[in-house]
Specification:
four-stranded antiparallel beta sheet; Pyrimidine Nucleoside Phosphorylase, Chain A, domain 2; binds uracil; 14% strand; 44% helix; Transferase, Pyrimidine Nucleoside Phosphorylase, Chain A, domain 3; 13 strands; alpha/beta; 464 residues; 3 domains; four-stranded mixed beta sheet; Aldehyde Oxidoreductase, domain 3
Amino acid sequence: MDQTGSDSSPHTPTSVPELIRKKRDGDRLEDAEIRSFVHGVTEGTVQEAQIGAMLMAIRLKGMDLAETEILTRALAESGQQLQWPEAWRPLLVDKHSTGGVGDKVSLILAPALAACGCKVPMISGRGLGHTGGTLDKLEAIPGFSVVQSPEQMRELLERAGCCIVGQSKELVPADGVLYAIRDVTATVDSLPLITASILSKKAVEQLSTLVVDVKFGEAAIFPSQEKARELAQALVSVGARLGLRVAAALTSMDSPLGCCVGHGLEVEEALRCLEGGGPPDLRDLITQLGGSLLWLNGQAPTLARGVAQVGETLVNGSALSRFQAMLEAQGVAPSLAQALCSGSPAQRQGLLPTAPTKEELRTVSEGTVEQIRALPLAHVLHELGAGRKRAGEALHHDVGLELLVSVGQRVSAGTPWIRVHHRGAGLSRGQARALQGALRLAGGAAFEPERALRELVLPPAPRG
Ligand code: URA
């Protein structure tokens, strides 16, 4: 690389500053220019400051579908492509989320789909912005390793039917670099960057069908349903250009999903769900997303049958035994995996990270819980150590919160409504105020909350 940051690789048409300038000024980038930039990101020849500047230029000026497709391909091709036995081809499915608060669906759905006969080679992500990441949650389990080689992934799919891994030197390395920098440069909420980031990981997996959970609402990357629909359509369209069958579910993200937020607590809640329990909103979303996948992939004759099939795996223990197999295959000591998957919540005490301090807040008046605003809750948890302020920073897996009331419930004044798990002497006054402000009470009777899933954007019908 020369002093201006130019990459001298053979397919470099333009210097990096010139590429940034082009996008900054709203011009289209040529295929070779996008590929050259991603090549430099992978090789480490593009400086972090330049990556941040390019991400911001894309965030502000956007990319059309053709540019987004090339960015996706270039990211996918920055590492190895996964290879599977021919017989697995029609069974390869996956689900991905744009990120929410309390969203532990992947931990449960990957083994549930494996129990339905699917192969799920899930390449997932860490927390982005205020949202929690599947990989960070899994790392709350002592010994769990998210770094697995392509060869190891094949063994994992043979043993457990599913695995959940992260980007690495071998798997979509360029997405790993961009993802970490987006998290700390306010460039998460970019339609082309999200599309390319998600689909590059899925293109590498050589899937038959993918369902993306596109969240909208106050605590989602995009608050408005219209913007989330635009993202859903971009995912479906770019997926089709790549030969990938992609459906997108639009789901609301105003209140947290389930009752627990925070890495260790979310693993505990996932285990309860895998044992056939857990909160109804979480179970409903898992079965709806999984049912859609089975139906679109031709493994269930109808959506309703797909939903029932996934639900059965949660009740009959087959999803739980796949989860246990996945934990063991990804590095968790067999005795710990067994204890986590065969004990009661009380017996699991102390096996997952536990914070030294628990503090409850009470309702200040009576009323009906209209909303528990996920965004301020996520910000306080971030401050308490559950999220990153710098790329690559270690997290506190024991920090989190439990909701003790649910949306639609009638409460009287003085009811404990939230239990915060943290490491300090006490919540600051600002943190307590922010948390109390998250609970929205209204007059009126108790009500049944609306289900999270609002729309399903389907892939184009196959030709012929
Ligand atoms: N998940 C990803 O993998 N990338 C994004 O940009 C957002 C969610």
